[in-house]
UniProtKB/TrEMBL annotation:
Pfam families: IFT20. It comes from Oceanites oceanicus (Wilson's storm petrel). Residues 80-111 form a coiled coil. The gene is Ift20. It comes from the Eukaryota. The keyword Coiled coil applies. GO terms for biological process: cilium assembly; protein localization to cilium. GO terms for cellular component: centrosome; ciliary basal body; ciliary base; cytoplasm; intraciliary transport particle; neuron projection; non-motile cilium. The keyword Coiled coil applies. Keywords: Cell projection, Coiled coil. This is IFT20 protein.
């Protein structure tokens, strides 16, 4: 025991297999334990980085999908606007056509009234001509 204390003072120690060591067995065990814990910690960090990487990838995909949907929506809105403009133009053309047909109808009505008057006058003339004979 005295020899062990003298060796300990010199920084030398015996391990459980009675081999001579420079490091205190307890310190050596703590060092090994710390090495294992550091290894486990590094493994967890690597796993965490993988998870974060896949999360970033997923968010990236969602952003691209959202952008794509936004572009589709803009396209659809523009299409609707152009359809609405076409309808408006068609409506204006039809209104102009209706106005034109109304004017034509009015001309025909006046022409018809005139012809009716002429017919009445001619019938009257024929009646007078027949009575004169």
């Amino acid at each position: 025991a005295m020899a062990q204390a003298a060796l300990g003072a010199a920084g030398l120690h015996f391990d459980e297999l009675n081999k001579l060591r420079v490091l205190d067995p307890e310190v050596a065990q703590q060092t090994a334990q710390l090495r294992e814990e550091c290894g486990a910690f590094l493994d967890r960090i690597v796993e965490f980085q993988k998870i974060v990487g896949s999360l970033i990838e997923l968010v990236d995909q969602l952003a691209k999908a959202a952008e794509s949907e936004k572009m589709k929506a803009i396209g659809a809105r523009n299409l609707l606007k152009s359809i609405a403009k076409q309808r408006e133009a068609q409506e204006q053309q039809l209104q102009a056509l209706i106005a034109e047909k109304k004017m034509q109808l009015e001309r025909y009505r006046i022409e018809y009234e005139t012809l009716c008057k002429i017919e009445a006058d001619q019938n009257e003339f024929i009646d007078q001509f027949i009575f004169q004979k």
